[in-house]
Specification:
alpha+beta; 32% strand; Nucleoside Triphosphate Pyrophosphohydrolase; three-stranded antiparallel beta sheet; 141 residues; four-stranded mixed beta sheet; 16% helix
Length: 141
């Protein structure tokens, strides 16, 4: 069976920061990552993304509209990762027990694999997100 996972990009309303977590356990312990988790068997990707978002951040569906940005397929590892993105409609408190949540500026080098999880994928996700300024107001200069 192929296991699905998700990563969720949560942009601040101003489009200058995004929400990340500092991992407390492996994989990627001590590194920053996007929030997300496993897609349960029989669960569709969108439902899983909103569920994981709420579980990890307390953000509910009425605060943000998520869209699937891309999917990474890893056939040799028996898994895939759906990447969902959305921008908060207004500033909202976030809280979660699983990992420390932080808002990081989009000016960071997200390709730095000593600081960020995902073998450079987080940097790639931001670059793809920048191609969609008609949907997201991104300010990273």
């Amino acid at each position: 069976m192929v296991q699905g996972y998700n990563c969720i990009i949560v942009l601040a309303p101003q489009g200058d920061r995004w929400l990340m977590c500092k991992r407390r356990k492996d994989p990627y312990k001590g590194l920053y990552n996007l929030v997300g988790g496993k897609i349960e068997q029989g669960e569709d990707g969108e439902t899983a993304a909103y569920r994981e978002l709420f579980e990890e951040t307390s953000l509910s569906r009425d605060k943000i509209k998520l869209e699937r940005l891309m999917t990474f397929d890893y056939p040799m590892d028996g898994c895939y990762v759906e990447v969902w993105a959305g921008q908060l409609k207004e500033y909202t408190e976030v809280s979660g027990d699983e990992n420390e949540l932080v808002w990081l500026p989009l000016t960071e080098d997200f390709f730095d694999m000593k600081k960020y999880a995902g073998e450079g994928n987080i940097g790639h996700m931001l670059e793809i997100l920048k191609l969609h300024t008609e949907r997201y107001s991104i300010h990273n200069s």
